[in-house]
């Protein structure tokens, strides 16, 4: 029977279709023609699925191949000629090979659309329709997704035969073990805010990681070539501080990677246009604990499989709640605790309110609540500590001023930010109205409850805010050129 499976990211969807597939295929068939196809939206997710299939199919002689963009076509032609049982592919490359090799898909018994909503978001609808048309009517179709948009419902109605909807965690859109914190920031202070969170909230160590130091020591002790992080004996466990930072565009990723590297952090980066080999190297360094931070665009929100991840930081707030769900689904998996920190500018406020409604959680501003805060069940918004934030902002400003390349990257990222804000999906009109009320609340500019309740520091911060408000609102009765021209001139005005 055809199946539509819905579950949040990190709940074991891959195993849910791999195990039945192996049970169904059992062993390698001498008859020519693949019997199962798994379609993934990204190269990383396809690689992750391949790993799971190989792990779970160890006791069988099933042949599995990978067909993704960026790899050699000649090698893929050869792989297809080896009579595989299972094909794991991205739709674009699979459709390309289907046309080039005039593939007959009549032997397919089992087809899986993994992260199907993402397949449609990335514009693969035409390729998917063509692939579906070439499949035999008696195959079993499985469609797995974390969300179910309208386009996906229409596709399921057209391509699936009386599908059964299986929904897991219908009430829990994000992991119950995930704790979240939202920080209101000014746009021009976002880099400083990121560093403040890394340094003072996450306590991210700077310099090489312990595993990186160990690898260097091992290499120094022996001239013999040891297995590197991408060898089969690699210890694929990220560090206890492992953090993914999500940015809006590849320009932001490049800028943040260079900025954080100059500040001494061990950083990797990934974005869509990055060369396939470079992507593998960057992800592997993070997976094996040689770096602590991975800066990515949303292309890596799904598919980059990190076994243990401590934190997620939304440097640029997502424009849709489901993107937030997929981003934070990287952490707090398999019963482990995890944190997600989000930077929220004034323009992002309507999107935060959309997310709050989507998650059906209570919104708490600053320190307005006297009850105990539950970060796993509430949307808590507040500001960062002003003094350390200003130190971080000044540090960033100094670095950018002294480095021409970094300054150029920042300028490009600012332009990319404007383009991103202009083209992103609009928030709901109701949330836009609520955002004005929330933004004008006296609690909006209060320090986040994540920081210790230091009454003296809070009072000083309030006095500082009041003084700045008075200064910013001050209008002199006359300009410098008018001094002494009105009324009686005194000695001081004559000197001026």
Automatic annotation (TrEMBL):
It comes from the Eukaryota. The keyword Hydrolase applies. Keywords: ATP-binding, Helicase, Hydrolase, Nucleotide-binding, RNA-binding. GO terms for molecular function: ATP binding; hydrolase activity; RNA binding; RNA helicase activity. Transmembrane segments: none annotated. Belongs to the DEAD box helicase family. This is ATP-dependent RNA helicase dbp10.
């Amino acid at each position: 029977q055809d199946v539509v499976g819905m579950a949040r990211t990190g709940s074991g969807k891959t195993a849910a279709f791999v195990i039945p597939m192996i049970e169904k295929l059992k062993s390698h068939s001498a008859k020519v023609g693949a019997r199962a196809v798994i379609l993934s939206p990204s190269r990383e997710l396809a690689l992750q699925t391949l790993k799971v299939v190989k792990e779970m199919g160890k006791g069988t002689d099933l042949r599995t191949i990978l067909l993704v963009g960026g790899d050699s076509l000649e090698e893929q032609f050869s792989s297809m000629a080896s009579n595989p049982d299972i094909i794991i592919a991205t739709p674009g490359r699979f459709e390309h090979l289907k046309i080039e090799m005039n593939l007959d898909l009549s032997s397919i018994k089992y087809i899986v659309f993994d992260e199907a909503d993402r397949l449609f978001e990335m514009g693969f609808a035409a390729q998917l329709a063509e692939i579906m048309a070439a499949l035999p009517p008696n195959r079993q179709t499985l469609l797995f997704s974390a969300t179910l948009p309208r386009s996906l419902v229409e596709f399921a109605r057209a391509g699936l035969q009386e599908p059964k909807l299986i929904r897991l965690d219908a009430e829990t859109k994000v992991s119950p073990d995930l704790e979240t914190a939202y920080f209101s920031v000014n746009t021009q202070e976002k880099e400083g805010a990121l560093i403040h969170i890394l340094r003072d909230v996450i306590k991210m160590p700077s310099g090489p990681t312990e595993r990186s130091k160990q690898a260097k020591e091992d290499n120094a002790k022996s001239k013999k070539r040891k297995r590197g992080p991408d060898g089969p004996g690699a210890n694929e466990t990220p560090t206890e501080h492992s953090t993914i930072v999500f940015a809006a565009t590849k320009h932001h990723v490049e800028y943040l990677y260079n900025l954080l590297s100059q500040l001494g952090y061990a950083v990797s980066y990934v974005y869509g246009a990055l060369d396939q080999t470079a992507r593998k190297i960057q992800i592997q360094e993070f997976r094996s604990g040689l770096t602590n931070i991975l800066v990515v665009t949303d292309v890596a929100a799904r598919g980059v499989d990190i076994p243990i991840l401590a934190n997620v930081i939304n440097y640029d707030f997502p424009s849709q709640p489901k993107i937030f769900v997929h981003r934070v689904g990287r952490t707090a998996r398999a019963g482990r605790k995890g944190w997600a920190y989000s930077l929220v500018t004034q323009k992002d406020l309507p999107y935060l309110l959309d997310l709050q409604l989507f998650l059906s959680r209570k919104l708490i501003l600053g320190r307005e609540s006297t009850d105990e805060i539950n970060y796993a069940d509430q949307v808590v918004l507040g500001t960062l500590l002003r003094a350390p934030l200003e130190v971080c902002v000044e540090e960033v400003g100094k670095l950018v001023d002294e480095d021409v390349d970094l300054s150029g990257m920042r300028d490009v990222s600012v332009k990319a930010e404007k383009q991103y804000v202009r083209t992103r999906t609009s928030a709901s009109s109701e949330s836009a109205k609520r955002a004005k009320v929330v933004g004008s609340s006296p609690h909006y500019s209060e320090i986040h409850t994540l920081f210790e309740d230091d009454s003296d520091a809070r009072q000083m911060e309030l006095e500082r805010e009041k003084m700045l408000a008075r200064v910013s609102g001050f209008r002199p009765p006359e300009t410098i050129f008018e001094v002494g021209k009105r009324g009686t001139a005194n000695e001081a005005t004559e000197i001026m």
